[in-house]
Backbone:
């Protein structure tokens, strides 16, 4: 960019353009240009494929549109949340992640303006790279014709609006945190408002507001105004001088090491203490698994309402809840990097081994609690509950191994690499889809089927162990060659 | 036998030759300064010597270990203070040094005693129970210095040792490094700071564009030429990329 360009644009526009360019280059450097550019194609393929599959199984178009918007809201909450649950990353947002954002310390730019530009950039970036390909699924709903471009455009705007609303909620929690309000308070607050709306008969209004393309224009306008108002109020409320108060802790490292019956106890203990002492504490993985449980339970209800079929809860929840392995592993690697360990006499495979042990210690209760809640709530038979538990253990191990093998120490970053994302999606779908189909078709599972499913869980569990064991040498070679 | 031996070391990242045929040696008892402009290949050399990256060519030896073939054995025997030396962590300095002692198989009581000694030497006693992430950059640097020496290694690699430290601690650390090297250890200091190198090093190597362009003993050197003059002249002669020439500096 030339000086003349900057002069014409003004500082905010220049800042905005620079942030966009930085975002693009960050991803291109991480994955290479074509692998990042292909990411929207993969998302579009998944969106179209899922829509076709749902239509073929008799799901109503309105339901598909509703679920799409719910997903967009969830992604909006997630992507704006560098600081939602893991709010220690808030400080990292300014300085560590991007060069431009740290410029408030050296240039006459306010942090509020930077945060505003950053959010606008993020919103536009995700709207184009993620929400637009999602919206292409709408083309399947109407069939290809002269109305298709208009429908896709409407779906895009509608999904983008809901996505932005999700981001706005996150930003509000960031702003509240900068005023000393604990972030976790926002979770029950949002839940309380949702339940209140539903029980007081305003649920339909809430549903209409969150799916603007099917509601009246006033609901879309209302959601737009509310989103802009929440963001504006959040930026005003945001305290740019906020910093974490200094925290102290008693020495727990040695005691924890002594309690761990492993060879890599120091590495495991460090991971566990990092998790426990960062914002959200040990509850972060539970929250992630809880969100997954609620989504799956709602899906079961929807399918039951449409088809009159209730799945075998053990098999169904056992298969799906294993996916929380991804988020749990993500939390376990959030606060360190592999390079940090290379100054000690510690091998990369030993670091991955320690992460696997920490994953078992944290992941087991994280999935056991929602799984037990699901099998009791949906009244699973004993055989179904037992085989579901076997599936849960095996599939969680497999998803963990798959994530570690493909993404190494950076599970979040690989989401935007088309190749890795595609490989991960295929790796998840291959065992999960047949399991879910079986869970719906054979209710409750016969003894023979239960044994076969338990065997599948065992085999996948072993495969996960093997994959996570291979990850060490694979990533050690990459790091030592200077690739990453 | 040299504590550190480097012969024709090469390392490239894609098309960029970060280190290009580097050769030098460091003996026990030496405090060797590794001087060079930004991007000269200093950090890459340290990472190769400590087994963190695999070189493309050449041979290296540290305390008679091969960092390429046996990186863990090399790292077991040396101390490393990395340039970006503050791993984000929610351990306290006390716990962090226990962690380092544990991965280095040190006796916990010994680690406790050395932790107290280092906290006293660098002045972070009052911060021993503060979470590492909440320490200032200077305090984090002090903790990282302590971890590099907690096992009293025979060879220590230090990348920019005085970064973020206050003048008092800088002086204490400089004196410590001199005495540590004098105790039959080798201290390898990578720095941009010529004054620091001139004050504490027994010998320096000057690098530019991945190659060693000069070596100079600072003990009893009677050439009359200052280290800064030698540095500017040699780097200028090497035509290091992206650096102003002495003529350009004179014009300024």
Residues:
């Amino acid at each position: 960019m030339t000086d003349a360009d900057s002069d014409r644009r003004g500082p905010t526009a220049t800042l905005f353009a620079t942030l966009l360019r930085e975002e693009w280059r960050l991803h291109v450097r991480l994955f290479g240009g074509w692998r990042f550019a292909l990411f929207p194609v993969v998302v579009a393929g998944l969106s179209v494929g899922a829509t076709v599959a749902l239509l073929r199984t008799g799901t109503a178009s309105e339901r598909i549109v509703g679920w799409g918007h719910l997903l967009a809201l969830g992604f909006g909450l997630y992507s704006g949340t560098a600081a939602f649950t893991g709010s220690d990353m808030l400080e990292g947002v300014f300085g560590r992640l991007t060069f431009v954002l740290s410029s408030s310390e050296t240039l006459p730019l306010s942090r509020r303006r930077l945060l505003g530009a950053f959010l606008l950039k993020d919103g536009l970036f995700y709207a184009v790279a993620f929400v637009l390909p999602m919206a292409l699924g709408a083309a399947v709903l109407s069939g290809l014709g002269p109305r298709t471009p208009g429908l896709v455009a409407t779906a895009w705007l509608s999904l983008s609006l809901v996505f932005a609303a999700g981001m706005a909620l996150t930003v509000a929690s960031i702003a509240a945190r900068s005023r000393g309000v604990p972030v976790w308070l926002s979770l029950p607050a949002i839940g309380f408002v949702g339940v209140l709306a539903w029980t007081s008969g305003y649920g339909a209004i809430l549903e209409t507001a969150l799916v603007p393309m099917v509601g009246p224009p006033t609901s879309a306008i209302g959601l737009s105004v509310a989103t802009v108002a929440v963001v504006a109020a959040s930026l005003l409320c945001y305290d740019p001088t906020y910093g974490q108060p200094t925290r102290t802790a008693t020495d727990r490292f040695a005691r924890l090491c002594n309690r761990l019956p492993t060879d890599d106890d120091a590495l495991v203990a460090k991971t566990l203490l990092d998790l426990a002492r960062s914002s959200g504490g040990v509850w972060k993985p539970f929250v992630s698994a809880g969100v997954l449980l609620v989504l799956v339970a709602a899906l079961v209800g929807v399918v039951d309402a449409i088809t009159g079929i209730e799945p075998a809860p053990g098999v169904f929840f056992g298969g799906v809840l294993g996916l929380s392995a991804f988020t749990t592993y993500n939390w376990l690697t959030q606060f360190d990097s592999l390079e940090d360990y290379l100054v000690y006499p510690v091998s990369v495979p030993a670091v991955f081994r320690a992460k696997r042990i920490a994953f078992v210690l944290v992941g087991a209760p994280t999935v056991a609690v929602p799984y037990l809640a699901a099998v009791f709530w949906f009244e699973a038979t004993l055989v179904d509950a037992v085989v579901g538990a076997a599936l849960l253990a095996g599939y969680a191990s497999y998803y963990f191994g798959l994530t570690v093998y493909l993404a190494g120490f950076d599970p979040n970053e690989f989401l935007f690499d088309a190749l890795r994302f595609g490989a991960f999606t295929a790796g998840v779908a291959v065992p999960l889809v047949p399991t879910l189909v079986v869970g719906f078709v054979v209710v409750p599972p016969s003894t023979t089927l239960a044994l076969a499913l338990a065997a599948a869980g065992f085999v996948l569990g072993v495969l996960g162990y093997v994959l996570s064991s291979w990850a060490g040498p694979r990533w050690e070679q990459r790091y030592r060659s200077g690739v990453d | 036998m040299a504590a550190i031996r480097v012969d024709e070391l090469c390392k490239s990242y894609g098309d960029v030759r970060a280190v290009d045929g580097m050769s030098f040696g460091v003996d026990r008892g030496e405090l060797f300064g590794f001087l060079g402009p930004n991007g000269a290949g200093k950090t890459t050399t340290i990472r190769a010597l400590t087994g963190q990256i695999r070189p493309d060519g050449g041979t290296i030896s540290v305390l008679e270990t091969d960092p390429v073939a046996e990186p863990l054995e090399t790292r077991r025997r040396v101390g490393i203070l990395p340039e970006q030396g503050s791993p984000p962590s929610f351990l306290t300095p006390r716990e962090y040094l226990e962690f380092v002692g544990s991965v280095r198989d040190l006796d916990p009581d010994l680690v406790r005693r050395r932790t107290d000694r280092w906290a006293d030497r660098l002045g972070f006693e009052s911060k021993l129970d503060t979470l590492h992430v909440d320490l200032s950059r200077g305090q984090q640097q002090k903790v990282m210095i302590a971890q590099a020496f907690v096992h009293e290694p025979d060879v220590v690699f230090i990348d920019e040792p005085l970064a973020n430290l206050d003048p008092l601690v800088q002086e204490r650390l400089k004196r410590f490094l001199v005495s540590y090297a004098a105790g039959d250890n080798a201290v390898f200091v990578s720095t941009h700071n010529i004054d620091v190198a001139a004050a504490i090093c027994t010998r320096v190597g000057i690098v530019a564009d991945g190659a060693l362009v000069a070596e100079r003993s600072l003990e009893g050197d009677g050439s009359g030429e200052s280290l800064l003059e030698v540095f500017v002249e040699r780097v200028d002669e090497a035509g290091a990329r992206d650096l102003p020439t002495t003529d350009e500096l004179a014009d300024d």
